[in-house]
Amino acid sequence: MRLLNFIDGQWSEPVKGQYRNIYDPATGEPLWEVPRSTPEDLNQAVEAARAAFSSWRLVPGPKRGEILFRVGQLLLERKAELAAKMTQEMGKVLLEAEGDVQEGIDMAFYMAGEGRRSFGQTTPSELPNKFAMTVRDPIGVAGIITPWNFPMAIPTWKIFPALVMGNTVVFKPASETPRLAYELVRILEQAGMPAGTVNLVFGSGTEIGEALIHHPDVPLISFTGSNETGRHVAEVTGRELKRVSLELGGKNAIIVMDDADLDLAVDGIIWSAFGTTGQRCTACSRLIVQEGIYDVVRDRLKERIEKLTLGSGLNEKTDVGPLINKQAVEKVKKYIQIGKEEGAYLETGGDVPHDPGLASGHFFLPTLFTNVSMKMRIAQEEIFGPVLSMIKVKSLPEAIEANNQVTYGLSSSIFTRNVNAAFEAIRDLATGLIYINAGTIGAEIHLPFGGTRGTGNGHRESGTAALDFFSEWKAVYVDYSGRLQRAQIDD
Ligand code: NAD
């Protein structure tokens, strides 16, 4: 099967007619072909989006929302089939792929409702016979650049609020996961999005992503991906004074206190560290444990980790699917070596599996390091694989300090039965997401999502926070006094 770009309401071949193959990460089998677009394709998409903006911005919000309701219904009808395609292309186990699609469904219904809300403020004026209010204005063409690890959810976090606010979209999905992007845009088309409002251009980050962030007719960029790319996107867009939202990497920790419910904590750790094979931006890769229970937690984790089943995500018995590609396996291997050299103790894992049935996929054994100190690179850098590092601490303040001692600030969690400790943690953990007695993953779409410090640039996705990124506030003053009234001067 051959995927196509979607430009100005037409499914189009790339101008230069070049394609590349996408492979199943669990088996190495070729799946489908995807365009290798060039900046010419991208320019056409931006032109279509720019032209469509003049009419889309005037479509009433509730009507824009109605289309998103239909999108939500179509996603719901096709949930199982979309999840299976995601698993084939990206590797995560089916249950998690269904969760990824469900997030898109939730976002469609939530943002559809914003078509009727999009509330501003009405407020008194300091002068008599004067009325004051705020309204939201769309901005223009939104460039959407997404990673491969949430092939449905992340594009919907960006595209749906952009559209409901009245912007038009040029979408450049991750090179590794084009299929779900293609299906999502087909659904948007089917639901009735007018030609030019949503455009899809496949291609590499260095060619199509680069052309999108540089394009003078694209005033806002919503980017999720690695810190390295995000920094570059910030530099380019900063020079042009574009509006840019960056959601970047994580080095998230779970804290386990001596008084924690250990069964619950171990369940939360396994799910957060090895779900999606550790390839979530919110994955737990550091485990900060109070000294009294450190050995028990280690032993129980080791036992559970060694029982995890690796395999294709399509197989119901699989707990841990493959990594996305060969480079990801190499990166994880490199960090295993670094961890050993730094003096961490490898409790289990640390290698590719030697099962011949898994030889053609990008698998890596779930790994546990103990004896890890916060200075080590494995405790500081994002590995983005199934590797968990255990750090021992004496007290809650020490645990919080360890949590905050990384450049990232996405998610953190604490397991404790002590309500005072929980509230102290809520006050002092310096991350954008905090979980009490749950792992580091599991965000819901009506709350703001995003990280502090090195994880981003202060914007948030999801909830009403997303509307702020995709719209411009306009303050409106209506003076019905019939005379000149000077603010701050006249009584
Ligand atoms: P990546 O930075 O390699 O790629 C992300 C996107 O940027 C892709 O679409 C890619 O093609 C594009 N890109 C690459 N070079 C570009 C350039 N020069 N100009 C413009 N676009 C360019 O990241 P990835 O490997 O796809 O994703 C994994 C990373 O994403 C991890 O660091 C993970 O933590 C992060 N992530 C963050 C969040 C979050 O919400 N904070 C969510 C998911 C993933």
Automatic annotation (TrEMBL):
GO terms for molecular function: aldehyde dehydrogenase (NAD+) activity. InterPro entries: Ald_DH/histidinol_DH (IPR016161), Ald_DH_C (IPR016163), Ald_DH_CS_CYS (IPR016160), Ald_DH_CS_GLU (IPR029510), Ald_DH_N (IPR016162), Aldehyde_DH_dom (IPR015590), ALDH7A1-like (IPR044638). Residues 19-476 form the Aldehyde dehydrogenase domain. It catalyses: (2S)-3-sulfolactaldehyde + NAD(+) + H2O = (2S)-3-sulfolactate + NADH + 2 H(+). Pfam families: Aldedh. Its EC number is 1.2.1.3, 1.2.1.97. Keywords: NAD, Oxidoreductase. It is an enzyme of class 1 (oxidoreductase). The active site is at E247. SUPFAM superfamilies: ALDH-like. It comes from the Bacteria. Part of the sulfo-TAL (or sulfo-SFT) pathway, a D-sulfoquinovose degradation pathway that produces sulfolactate (SL). Catalyzes the oxidation of 3-sulfolactaldehyde (SLA) to sulfolactate (SL). Belongs to the aldehyde dehydrogenase family. Homotetramer. This is 3-sulfolactaldehyde dehydrogenase. It comes from Sulfobacillus benefaciens.
